[in-house]
Amino acid sequence: MLSHETIWHALDALAERHKLTASGLARRAGLDPTSFNKSKRHGPDGRLRWPSTESIAKVLEATGSSVEQFLSYIPSSRSHLPEGAFPPQIGTIPLLGFAQAGAGGFFDDGGFPAGQGWDVVEFPASPARKSGVYALEVQGDSMMPLYRDGDVLIVEPGAQVRRGDRVVVKTREGEVMAKILMRQTAKTIDLHSLNPEHSNRSLDLVEVEWVARIIWASQ
């Protein structure tokens, strides 16, 4: 079963197989040497931190290992994770519904996926390899006609955003919305609605928890 513990165990086992420490494995992969340290596997608030698919891909390349070899260290691997464990397989990313995204516990302070309750979805390797990328499933018709109920949006937190980008915004009150970024200053952000029946929004940045760019959509 995939879990936070078993994925980190697989990385430790891979390091041991190549006679490396966790720091040595990260260094060989061109990552920060502290990336895989045990102290980095939980956040300051106790939330679980997962190795990204990009980090694992770099480790596999650096050690000449295959995905199958990596997964061999994880018993009973499967694609559906009821406890929300983030998968290491290249081409799979965490998935969450828009309706659930506004609740607490699913994102860290930077807007990256965290905690329990995530599912997974298979997607092309290119977006899946970006660090921290996740998917949100559209629910309802508030984003028509651009996005329909059931469409899946691939979101990249931490990416630079600019005018005209389609973005997902979460407010500090827990509202999550997909909009078009029209203008951002040091104090405010102006958002254009995808659905003409919904009003545009102008928010003070102090009201915004995070902004993440939409980089791909399954329609």
What does this structure look like?
This protein has 2 domains: 1-79, Orthogonal Bundle (434 Repressor (Amino-terminal Domain)); 91-219, Umud Fragment, subunit A, CATH 2.10.109.10. 21% of the residues lie in helices and 26% in strands. The chain has 6 helices and 9 strands; from the N terminus they run ααααβαβαβββββββ. The protein has helices spanning 4-17, 22-28, 53-63, 67-71, 98-101, 125-128, and strands at residues 92-97, 119-122, 134-137, 152-157, 166-171, 176-184, 188-193, 201-204, 208-218. The two termini are 31 Å apart. The relative contact order is 0.13. Residues 76-90 have low confidence and may be disordered.
Task: Annotate the secondary structure layout.
Elements: H1 4-17, H2 22-28, H3 53-63, H4 67-71, E1 92-97, H5 98-101, E2 119-122, H6 125-128, E3 134-137, E4 152-157, E5 166-171, E6 176-184, E7 188-193, E8 201-204, E9 208-218
Parallel strand pairs: 1-3
Antiparallel strand pairs: 1-2, 3-4, 4-9, 5-6, 5-9, 6-7, 7-8
What characteristics describe this protein?
single chain, 219 residues, alpha+beta, 434 Repressor (Amino-terminal Domain), Umud Fragment, subunit A, elongated, DNA binding, LexA-like, DNA-binding protein, transcription, Lambda_DNA-bd_dom_sf
Please provide a brief summary of the model.
The protein has 219 residues and is an alpha+beta fold. The protein has helices spanning 4-17, 22-28, 53-63, 67-71, 98-101, 125-128, and strands at residues 92-97, 119-122, 134-137, 152-157, 166-171, 176-184, 188-193, 201-204, 208-218.
